[in-house]
């Protein structure tokens, strides 16, 4: 599946997803303002945690045109983020010492590996079924997402791509939203005219990135 989908990871193709990510970023700024900047003193909060919520919501918007809702909830409401963090720590360790994977996750007597991310598989499968049945209310044909690209590839190359390959692809994608933050950070630092209106205690508004 890697070869046929590569065309959708070019700069021009990824830039077509900007309407989806722009919406998430505007909501990110809005959440920070309404939750933590409603008065002159402001409220302390964990910015890194909210960056994680934003990154995961982007990870939902880009493939499926629908956010996961972590910013709306203001918390890791289904524990997917914490499970993914544990899994990534595990993969970092076995990447350095591959033998550990056979002793832990692939142990035939007692598995001691990371928790399964079955929730991600369910999310990908539900969106795939709804989209193929024409029952996905979040999909805008004018702004095709990665899931729609995968479905088109499946229709053109049924011998190479099936539903299982699509679900597996996005299970891997959703495990690592850190790359989505790279997109988010790039947008913040390069977008002309960005104004998040993160007011300082003096009431001033930071200048937009240039």
Automatic annotation (TrEMBL):
InterPro entries: Cyt_P450_sf. This is Uncharacterized protein. It comes from Apiospora saccharicola.
């Amino acid at each position: 599946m890697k070869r046929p989908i590569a065309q959708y990871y070019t700069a021009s193709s990824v830039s077509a997803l900007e309407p989806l990510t722009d919406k998430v970023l505007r909501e990110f700024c809005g959440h920070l303002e309404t939750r933590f900047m409603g008065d002159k003193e402001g409220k302390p909060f964990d910015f890194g945690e909210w960056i994680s919520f934003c990154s995961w919501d982007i990870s939902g918007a880009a493939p499926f045109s629908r956010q996961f809702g972590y910013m709306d909830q203001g918390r890791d409401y289904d524990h997917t983020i914490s499970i993914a963090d544990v899994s990534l720590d595990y993969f970092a360790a076995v990447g350095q010492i591959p033998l550990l994977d056979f002793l832990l996750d692939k142990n035939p007597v007692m598995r001691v590996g990371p928790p399964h991310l079955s929730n991600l598989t369910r999310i990908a499968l539900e969106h795939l079924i709804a989209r193929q049945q024409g029952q996905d209310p979040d999909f805008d044909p004018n702004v095709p997402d990665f899931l729609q690209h995968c479905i088109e590839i499946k229709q053109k190359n049924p011998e190479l791509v099936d539903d299982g390959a699509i679900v597996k692809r996005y299970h891997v994608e959703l495990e690592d939203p850190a790359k989505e933050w790279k997109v988010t950070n790039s947008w913040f630092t390069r977008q002309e005219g960005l104004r998040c209106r993160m007011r300082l205690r003096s009431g001033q508004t930071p200048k937009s990135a240039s």
